[in-house]
C-alpha cells in the first residue's frame, strides 16, 4: 500500500519552525504534496531540501513562484520518480501552481489552485487554470498513467463542504462558476475520493484564523485527492487529518 498526504502549509519556512520535519518523520507517508510553500529552494534550510529523516530519506522537488514569498508547490517522495515536471504553461508555472511526479502507472500532482479573490478579481485566471488542469489530467491518462490530483483546490464543491453555504454564495471558493467547474470535473471521469467514502457533514480542511473558527469547526473543505474513475477501485482510504496544526489548512491523506 502507498500513502499520499497533501497539505497547504501556508509558508514552509513558518511551518518548519512548528515541527514540520518531526511531523513528516512520524507520519512517514510515501509521498507528501505541499502547497503554498511561499519560498524558493535557495531560501530553504538543507534539512528541508535534503529531507534525510530518521525514518528514511525523501527526494524533495520544488516549483516556486517568480514573485517572492508567494504561492509555490513541492513534492517529497521516498521513491525517486521517473520524472518531475510542471504543467508547462508559463502563466501557471510562473506562480508555481503545479508540480507533477511521474511514476510507473501513476502520476501524482501537487496543485495549488488560484484563489478567485474578492469580487472575482482573479476568477477568469482561476477558470483558465481549472480548464488547463483538466486537460492536463486527461493527457496523463492518454499517456497511460493514472492520475492523483492532490492539493488545495480553493473550491468548496457542495453545501455539505462548508459550514455556512448560504452566506458564502458570493464569496471566493464558493462561487457558482467554481462549483460548476467541480461538477464538470467530477463528471469527466474523476472522483473526489473523500466524498466517495464519507458522506458526513462538518468535515473541513480550512478554517479562518479569525473568530476561533477552527475551535468551533466553522470551516471549508478545500483540499482534495481526486483520481480518475478507473483507478478508484484501488483506493483504500481517503481521510482528513484535522488534528494536525501549523497552518490554516490541515492535511488530507490517501491510501491505495
Q: Would you kindly provide a written description of the structure presented here, covering whatever features stand out?
A:
InterPro entries: AP_endonuc_1, AP_endonuclease_F1_BS, AP_endonuclease_F1_CS, Endo/exonu/phosph_ase_sf, Endo/exonuclease/phosphatase. The active site is at 112, 152 (proton donor/acceptor), 249 (proton acceptor). Mg(2+) binds at residues 8, 36, 152, 154, 248-249. Its cofactor is Mg(2+); Mn(2+). This is Exodeoxyribonuclease III (Xth). It is a single chain. The protein has a single domain (3-255), classed as Endonuclease/exonuclease/phosphatase (Deoxyribonuclease I, Chain A). The protein contains 7 helices and 16 strands. The mean pLDDT is 98. It has 256 residues and is an alpha+beta fold. The longest helix has 20 residues, at 123-142. The chain is globular, with a radius of gyration of 17 Å. It has a 6-stranded mixed beta sheet with strand order 5-6-2-1-16-15. A 6-stranded mixed beta sheet has the order 7-8-9-10-14-11. Strands 3-4 form a two-stranded antiparallel ribbon.
Brief overview:
This protein is α+β, with helices and mostly antiparallel strands. The protein has seven helices and 16 strands. 41% of the residues are buried.
What secondary-structure arrangement, pairings included, does this model have?
Layout (H helix, E strand, L loop, with lengths): L2 E6 L3 H5 L3 H8 L3 E5 L10 H5 L1 E2 L2 E2 L1 E5 L9 E5 L5 E3 L4 H4 L4 E5 L3 E7 L10 H20 L3 E7 L23 H11 L3 E3 H5 L8 E2 L11 E2 L2 E6 L8 E4 L11 E4 L1
Parallel strand pairs: 1-2, 9-10
Antiparallel strand pairs: 1-16, 2-6, 3-4, 5-6, 7-8, 8-9, 10-14, 11-14, 12-13, 15-16
Amino acid at each position: 500500500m502507498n500513502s499520499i498526504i497533501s497539505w497547504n502549509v501556508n509558508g514552509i519556512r513558518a511551518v518548519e519552525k512548528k515541527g514540520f520535519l518531526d511531523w513528516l518523520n512520524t507520519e512517514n507517508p510515501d509521498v507528501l504534496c505541499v502547497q503554498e510553500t511561499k519560498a524558493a529552494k535557495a531560501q530553504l534550510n538543507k534539512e528541508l531540501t535534503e529531507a534525510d529523516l530518521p525514518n528514511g530519506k525523501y527526494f524533495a522537488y520544488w516549483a516556486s513562484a517568480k514573485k517572492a514569498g508567494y504561492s509555490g508547490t513541492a513534492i517529497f517522495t521516498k521513491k525517486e520518480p521517473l520524472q518531475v515536471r510542471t504543467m508547462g504553461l508559463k502563466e501557471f508555472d510562473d506562480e508555481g501552481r503545479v508540480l507533477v511526479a511521474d511514476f510507473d502507472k501513476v502520476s501524482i500532482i501537487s496543485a495549488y489552485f488560484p484563489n478567485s479573490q474578492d469580487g472575482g478579481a482573479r476568477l477568469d485566471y482561476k477558470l483558465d487554470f481549472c480548464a488547463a488542469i483538466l486537460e492536463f489530467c486527461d493527457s496523463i491518462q492518454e499517456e497511460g498513467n493514472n492520475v492523483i490530483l492532490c492539493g488545495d483546490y480553493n473550491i468548496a464543491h457542495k453545501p455539505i463542504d462548508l459550514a455556512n453555504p448560504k452566506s458564502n454564495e458570493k464569496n471566493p471558493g464558493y462561487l457558482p462558476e467554481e462549483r460548476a467547474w467541480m461538477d464538470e470535473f467530477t463528471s469527466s471521469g474523476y472522483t473526489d475520493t473523500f466524498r466517495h467514502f464519507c458522506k458526513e457533514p462538518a468535515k473541513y480542511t480550512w478554517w479562518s484564523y479569525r473568530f476561533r473558527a477552527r475551535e468551533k469547526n466553522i470551516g471549508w473543505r478545500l483540499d482534495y485527492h481526486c483520481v480518475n474513475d478507473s483507478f478508484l477501485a484501488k483506493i483504500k482510504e481517503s481521510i482528513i487529518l484535522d488534528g494536525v496544526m501549523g497552518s490554516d489548512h490541515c492535511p488530507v491523506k490517501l491510501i491505495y
